[in-house]
Amino acid sequence: MSEAKQREPLIHISRRGNLPWWGAWGIRAAAVALAMMVCALLCILVTRTNPLDIFRTMFEASFKTERKFWVMLHSTAILLCVSLAVTPAFRMRFWNVGGEGQALMGCLASAACMILLRDAVPHWLMIVCMVFASITAGAIWGLIPAFFKANWNTNETLFTLMMNYIATQLVAYFCVVWENPKGSGQIGIINQRDPYKGLGWLPVVGGQKYLLNIIIVAVICAAMFFYLYYSKQGFELSVVGESEKTAHYLGIKVKRVIIRTMILSGALCGLTGLLLTGGNDHTLTTTLVGGRGFTAVMVSWLAKFNPLWMILTSFLLVFLQKGAGDISTNFGLNESFSDILTGIILFFIIGSEFFIHYRLHLRHRHLSDKEAVK
Amino acid sequence: MEQRIPAVSIRNITKRFGQTLANDHVSLDIYRGEVLALLGENGSGKTTLMNMLSGIYFPDEGSIAIDGHEVVIDSPRKAIELGIGMIHQHFKLVDLLSAAENIELGLKGKLDIPAASKRIREISEAYGFEIDPAQKVYDMSVSQKQTVEILKVLYRGADILILDEPTAVLTPQETEKLFQVLRNMRNDGKAIVIITHKMNEVLELSDRVAVLRKGEYVGDMATAETSAQDMTNQMVGHAVSLNIERPQPVNPIPRIEVSHLTVRNEAGVIRLDDVSFTARSGEILGIAGIAGSGQKELLEAIAGLQPVESGSIRYLEDDGTPEELIGKDPLEIQKMGVALSFVPEDRLGMGLVGSMDLNENMMLRTYRTGASPVTDRKTPHELAERVVHDLDVVTPNLHTPVRNLSGGNVQKILVGREITSAPKVLLTAYAVRGLDINSSYVIYDLLNQQKKKGVAVIYVGEDLDVLLELADRILVLCAGKVSGEVAGKDAVKDEIGLMMTSVGGGRHE
Description:
The complex is a heterodimer.
Chain A: H1 2-7, E1 11-15, H2 21-47, H3 51-63, H4 66-91, H5 99-116, H6 123-152, H7 156-177, H8 211-230, H9 232-242, H10 244-249, H11 254-281, H12 292-302, H13 307-330, H14 335-357, E2 358-362, H15 369-373
Antiparallel strand pairs in A: 1-2
Chain B: E1 8-17, E2 20-30, E3 34-39, H1 46-53, E4 61-66, E5 69-71, H2 76-81, E6 84-87, H3 99-104, H4 113-127, H5 142-155, E7 160-164, H6 172-187, E8 191-195, H7 199-205, E9 208-213, E10 216-222, H8 228-236, E11 254-264, E12 270-280, E13 283-288, H9 295-302, E14 310-316, E15 322-324, H10 330-335, E16 338-342, H11 358-366, H12 378-390, H13 407-420, E17 425-429, H14 437-452, E18 456-460, H15 464-470, E19 473-478, E20 481-487, H16 493-502
Parallel strand pairs in B: 3-8, 3-9, 6-7, 7-8, 13-18, 13-19, 16-17, 17-18
Antiparallel strand pairs in B: 1-2, 1-4, 4-5, 9-10, 11-12, 11-14, 14-15, 19-20
Helix pairs in contact in B: 11-12, 12-13, 13-14
């Protein structure tokens, strides 16, 4: 027997049974903690500072001042909004990685209204036009790949990805067309000065610049949760995602569901564009969405496509990114260093999913869940 | 059975999947020159145990010895080195390659097809296989593909063969041929393990029977000293009755009239060729045929899921008013009372969603009812409770994803759901596919209950013995054509077997 034991493989992997939700989140928390430790270690090696300072810097990046706190909340809300937008598509197993482009089209449509209609319509009508235009633009950007997928089964991942580049180029073009001041190649803040001052800017609510956007996203979040879990359409799109054959057998019109869901997904992305251009930045640049369309993929995945958990995961990612950014600046490191730190943290978070689904056995010693994480 | 050294000796093997205990301290011996039948209900751990022998899983506890020497089987390659070869239910062959190329695939050394073909012929002659090494796999029937799979492991030098439900896809004639080959191999001194649910095959072929129940080893016995009833009782753990009743149809009237139906698949190949028949209320119409003879297309055409080239499918109301089904939406056909439960090979692919729980799977049929955009969750919940209660579905609770349930329970849920929609016509295909005896009889019972209620049941089956006992009439399909129709009472198994292959030599999938 003893001889056989020694020749047994060092590690073997087996599938876990259903882990309770707190077990899964415990593993994720452990992964974040571990990632922080690795980050701290790296910082110490590079900068020779006290790791506690590093963690404090990280925390302060989001919580030190009231302003930082609001900025953090707003970033979380915007990221959450894009994530909510791509989630119905994901639940349908339609890998929409085009959130970036769809949101950018929303920005472009909003900016177009603000610039082209400023002599034509009053403020309130301008806002209505912007809402309509941004949602339509995003929806069209979502509809195109869906139409091709539904009719000719094209690969939606590649298609939506490519649509991002088209959107970026379109925005780059219009940045030159609408440049201000002339020759700068940039748009700057739109409608900043009289006689147009504040035209097409979303109103400020409760004296707090970011509050309106946050409230809008909160409402969308609740509505999306309800749509996905309690509506007939939400149920249909999950069936299509899980098994197209079954959907077909039940008489669900698969094509129609794909197109409908992607219009919704694109429309919400477009709305995010409105919140950015109309609500916060009041400008148009090619980097306005700032990669959130891709980060949203992770927010959605980590939360298992549940809108309520996504509040937590989007906060987590924003918190980590802001923290990593401040660590780089405060300790005199360049921007790549913050990318490295974010990368380490994401690596651990994504890697922890493995330990949620599988457990490792080391040579006949059955490890408890917590040990297995290490 | 005195002092023989077992070819394989399994001792105290335990395997867990999460909280499920698939094998619980199982000990089993396999001898050379013997066919061992491994019996057990669905989910009793037969396949898991054999997968550990062939290196796919690794046991949590216990040991395995080959010819008295303890071994560690940590990969399928290692299993092959030790002479263990497993033939799985689903074939793993490359369609575009020939038999010889498939067999050579993955082996080390120079590729020498002529030499390989020669050896394949030698092995084939030794055991009585019929095979052309140059034939492409896409040209082969299911049984020929199976032959390639068996040759593949023999070619690699296996002398311990494990076959997982090898007869599920074969005609009676093909089964008989396979058994003859297996007997030849046994006489040659190979150890053979066969997993099957069919009692008559166990009695016909095996020398010894080993029974697993809920992951535990119950015992083994010489086949000659046991009976089907005895084995079933051991498997289930209590006495069960092994008779299928066939109540006399009450007042049958024509319900579905299919005439001159022709269907082509997407590639333009004819799948149904001028098929005509009538299904009557209060009657079970059995459909026999080799897998891929057009059964699926037939049921799907009736359910409105399959485009039809020509012909008609008419639904007859109680007063005889005909209504054409072709051109109707699947939903409209459902509403007229035509329910389809097709159990595909993976069991879940059509009709159920694996990751959803029992309630939601019930909801798949009912969620559209009502004008509100919000789903009604109460009705499906009650439905799920009823199905679980009426059909004895074994599940931890109603919130368990159905893919975590054993095959039998999954099928009960599917068939149960279709039945609760109170259909006028029940189309069911492979309802007992891969099910153990006990669950199968529950399903037969359900079908008979529907028949007594006046439902027209169309039953596509793969087990001819059951079709002969259950169906009032049997329609035989061969290569998309109707090759015969016989009354269930008078049908003879061999005749039907011949009809299954008679028209045009049979076109296979």
